[in-house]
Amino acid sequence: MEPPVTTPFAARHIGPRPSDQSAMLERLGYDSLDALMDAAVPGRIRHNEALALPDALDERSAIARLRELASRNRPGIAMIGLGYHPTLTPAVIRRNVLEDPAWYTAYTPYQPEISQGRLEALLNFQTMVADLTGLPTANASLLDEGTAAGEALTLIRRASRGKDLRPIAVDARLAPQTLAVLRTRAEAVGIELHDVDLGATGLDADVAGVVIAYPAADGAVTDPTSVIEAVHAGGGLAVVVSDPLALVALASPGSMGADIVVGSTQRFGVPMFYGGPHAAYMAVRDGLERHLPGRLVGVSVDAAGVPAYRLALQTREQHIRREKATSNICTAQVLLAVVAGMYAVYHGAEGLRQIALTVHQHAATLADALRDGGVDIVHEEFFDTVVARVPGRARSVVTAARTSGIHLWQVDGDHVQVACSEATTLEHLELVLRAFGVAAPTLLTGRAHLPEPLLRRDEILTHPVFSEHRSETQLLRYLRKLSDRDYALDRGMIPLGSCTMKLNATTEMEPISWPEFAELHPFVPAEDAAGMTELIETLEGWLAEVTGYAAVSVQPNAGSQGEFAGLLAIRAYHRSRGDDARDICLIPSSAHGTNAASAVMAGMRVVIVAAGESGEVDLDDLRAKCEQHRDELAAIMVTYPSTHGVYEEGIAELCDIVHEAGGQVYVDGANLNALLGHARPGAFGGDVSHLNLHKTFCIPHGGGGPGVGPVAVAEHLAPFLPSHPLHPRSDRREGVGAISAAPYGSAGILPIPFAYISMMGGQGLTDATSVAVLSANYVAARLRDAFPVLYAGEHGLVAHECILDVRELTKRTGVSVEDVAKRLIDYGFHAPTMSFPVAGTLMVEPTESEDLAELDRFCDAMLAIRSEIDRVADGAYAADDHPLANAPHAARELLEWSHAYSVAEGVFPAGVTQDKYWPPVGRIDQAYGDRNLVCSCPPVEAFDTVSG
């Protein structure tokens, strides 16, 4: 026997073995991967040169490289504040949520029957937010505080049906990064902002709304009631930006009349991660819930009347309403929302009160010690942040503290800001006071500095879920129970078209929890984040190389944000040339719904371009639209390969047509997994693309977030990449504006794609694309006779995904695409994408990570389902009682089996009994949940199906 050979990482990442690939190629009629790709990818755009990336590292070497980078970060003790605080993540949550593939490899819960665990966790999050804010309805998370505040601006406009065009007042005491994002968002859609120091002057302007800081970024706590009353008197809406830990101690904004409350839950157990990912939140008063952006978890019932969770009010979302959407669905941080919600479950109301009290005691002790030492304190009433006046000494104080390992914030030459957190100790206070030249106390002795009228007096977190998991044993079992209810990549294939659910390797994931990355505040001095910034800039360079663009910014923290940033770059470029009138964005009728929603966010007008019968952009209609709007054309947004999963032959010609008319070409990077190493958007005519690192580059979907959506641009657009007022590089502080709250967006998860590219190398990335295309064509070939493949390219090939047409079968038998999707659950699969981009179809993307046995298992299941459909057509199954119509089958049905077909046919169709996945509920009634909107934790009695 030959000795075992050390397998390179690429061979671990790519599922089909070389012998399997040969068999798959033989079925398709090709003798090599190169021959397949030559036939699939149009020659005019084919990139035949090797990618200029470093040689692939093995896993051990990649970890060593990341260790070296991490060692050059100096997180110290962050006492900077400004919305980012050290937190103590309970180890049971870190290990069993943040680091558990059962949670981080799950997809967005669009198939609710197999997502009940994470939906319950998100309902906990919503309930926590609703309790703390004092408002009845909260969403299932947003991206960060800045973008959540930006969403509130547009909610104000939507709630007035766009008729209230008065300015919106924003509190000058908001965090600087939040103000920066608000300005970017407002300018794009023509909302006029008035900066007002609401703590000093109150509200004296006629405005459509107001955005209030409570507490302020400098720590001051003032009563917002009079400002809220003033804006209401003028018919406007009041938005309050709040720290949830402060709301444990302070009266809720809802009790003061706030209409909307936003903020970040980062300090609820989520590491700072050098700026993200973190779960933001938004809560609204009654009457605004249908304007609420993002996802909203609600309670419905399943086919047996048992309560079940689902995403509610999905008709608001961009995949349905496109440019008229009130929500861009790609704006969630589910994994981090689960962590924050479980932090509240872990601590309960009493635990959070103790944390909040201790944080305030540390801040109060610091303030009193400074005053006793002769240092002036700017604000008398605060929660966790103290601003000291030290004329001419601010720099020396901050430098002295940094020397001892403490990061403070220099407000200006005369003021220093110090923020206390859950992690603050008396020893930290001693080091801070020493930097000020003041003696330290030996006990927490500070008097309360919270305003007595604003103390919280109502009960919070009264639902049993926040009090019944007090021991680690209980919480561990609760987390396991929830994850067992879900279907994630750790169980099996998630063959979703358009979303690329591929391997998230453990070696890639491991570094994100290292303290040198996880505990880094985004505003530490640049030299204290040297390893992180080198990692980021190296990654940006690699992404530029593989896409053929000149420059990349990783600031956008979701694909939707990357789209927005790319369109802002195009708009700024036109304006720099005096072409202010160019505001038309052409979008193919087949495009992903985020495109149209993002174009509207960027202040552009959407014009639809027709698609041909085979799904490709109609070039004749494109020419006509370009001519019609020649003087107004800003851009076209086109997905490549197409949204239909095809390499369109005319993509280069499309780029030429738009360029000739003076427009720019935005190539949506959602399908980049079909291009890497074979074609580069920046080389075949693209001017800008966003990339989905949570698709092509292995950041996991986390149940619907986190994601990263870097924007890549050609050289002429590089000056218009996102900027940030607190960027560590001075040349990136002014420009188009901030897209996300942190300079590098969700920097904490960038070690994942860094590790992936390091270990794959150029050839590995190229091979991954080839096998992804091979797998999709293999699935199409096996299923084509049973389910017609809707679109294909010139040689009958698809790209990395294929669309299976169920419409004719539905017409003949009444079996719907939803029936097929739900029946796949009984066979042990997550469903493909339903009815996108074509109603009545299934879009399948197998990825390169699934091995041949899993591909065949899926194909066998689909063929068996086709046989079941034939039995419905033949009358062998009753038209109203067959396995597809009743799918998925929950275990409780075995107690009273009432179907004409057998138990084996219903629940064991694949013959698997030992390791079968059991959906916890039957098919969920979607309409019932929207008619009876319940978006916080129902009482436990609601789930009692025995006595009730």
From TrEMBL:
One of its GO terms (molecular function) is glycine dehydrogenase (decarboxylating) activity. It is an enzyme of class 1 (oxidoreductase). Residues 12-436, 466-722 form the Glycine cleavage system P-protein N-terminal domain. Residues 768-889 form the Glycine dehydrogenase C-terminal domain. SUPFAM superfamilies: PLP-dependent transferases. The modification N6-(pyridoxal phosphate)lysine is found at K695. Its EC number is 1.4.4.2. One of its GO terms (cellular component) is cytosol. It comes from the Bacteria. It holds the Pfam family GcvP2_C. Keywords: Oxidoreductase, Pyridoxal phosphate. The glycine cleavage system catalyzes the degradation of glycine. The P protein binds the alpha-amino group of glycine through its pyridoxal phosphate cofactor; CO(2) is released and the remaining methylamine moiety is then transferred to the lipoamide cofactor of the H protein. Belongs to the GcvP family. This is Glycine dehydrogenase (decarboxylating). It comes from Aeromicrobium camelliae. The gene is gcvP.
